[in-house]
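Retro notes (design track)

What went well: tokenization of the new backbones is finally stable.
What didn't: we kept losing track of which sequence belonged to which structure.
Fix going forward: every design gets posted as structure first, then sequence, in one message. First example under the new rule, 159 residues:
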């Protein structure tokens, strides 16, 4: 009888870990995207090079939620991208990349104020690009946010 209770306990624990997404904390993924270059019919030497407009470093939010690497807003080919370089973050369920105007995000979504959702985080490590639609005026903080639980994982204020 004790074995049955132990088996039920283990199954319940596995179910909780799976359905809450806690297992994602132990999964690492990596991507290394190239920096987009300007397109067009000009020769390679005449093409404008991408220009870094702002940059900042990711840091620790608390003992569990932390990241490292650099966030950059880059002007390229008439548009803008957010580039995460040498990036690393603790994984979690449903992580998204936001760009906000605030420089002090907290664990509350309201603290982000006016923000743009740039999409799901592509990987927990590496170099990755996110297209920024529209005007970038005032947007200066890259945020990694867990949509499922409303948790701030890391952020970088770009100067």
């Amino acid at each position: 009888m004790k074995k049955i209770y132990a088996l039920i306990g283990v199954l319940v624990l596995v179910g909780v870990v799976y359905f809450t997404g806690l297992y994602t904390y132990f999964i690492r993924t990596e991507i290394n995207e190239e920096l987009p270059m300007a397109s067009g019919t000009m020769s390679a030497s005449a093409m404008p090079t991408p220009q870094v407009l702002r940059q900042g470093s990711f840091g620790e939010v608390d003992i569990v939620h932390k990241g490292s690497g650099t966030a950059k807003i880059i002007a390229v080919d008439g548009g803008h991208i957010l580039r995460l370089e040498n990036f690393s973050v603790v994984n979690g369920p449903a992580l998204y990349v936001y760009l906000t105007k605030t420089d002090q995000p907290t664990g509350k979504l309201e603290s982000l104020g006016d923000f743009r959702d740039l999409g799901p985080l592509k990987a927990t490590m590496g170099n990755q690009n996110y297209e920024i639609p529209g005007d970038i005026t005032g947007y200066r903080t890259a945020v990694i946010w867990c949509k499922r639980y409303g948790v701030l994982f890391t952020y970088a204020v770009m100067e």
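Added context from the reviewer: The CA atoms of residues 12 and 22 lie 14 Å apart.
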